[in-house]
Recover the amino acids of this structure.
């Protein structure tokens, strides 16, 4: 399975492609404007949800070094021993 960062990058890339291609497809009759907006909005919503999920994970991670000090004690703990 891919990482959340890779999924976000792919959605960002795909949204750029669609923003560039959809106007021509609508003009050529290959896609109507309502469907184009709906498809774009669905991907944009997915991107927003993934970004929110990634932010939740970042906020719930302990600060760097906290796990190390819990497992091995702090410098003061080791000096006191």
């Amino acid at each position: 399975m891919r990482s959340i960062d890779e999924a976000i990058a792919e959605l960002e890339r795909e949204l750029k492609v669609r923003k560039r291609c959809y106007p021509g497809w609508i003009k050529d009759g290959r896609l109507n404007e309502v469907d184009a907006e709906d498809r774009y909005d669905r991907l944009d919503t997915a991107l927003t949800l993934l970004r929110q999920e990634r932010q939740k994970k970042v906020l719930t991670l302990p600060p760097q070094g906290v796990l190390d000090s819990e497992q091995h004690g702090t410098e003061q703990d080791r000096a006191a021993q």
The chain is about 80% helix and 0% strand.
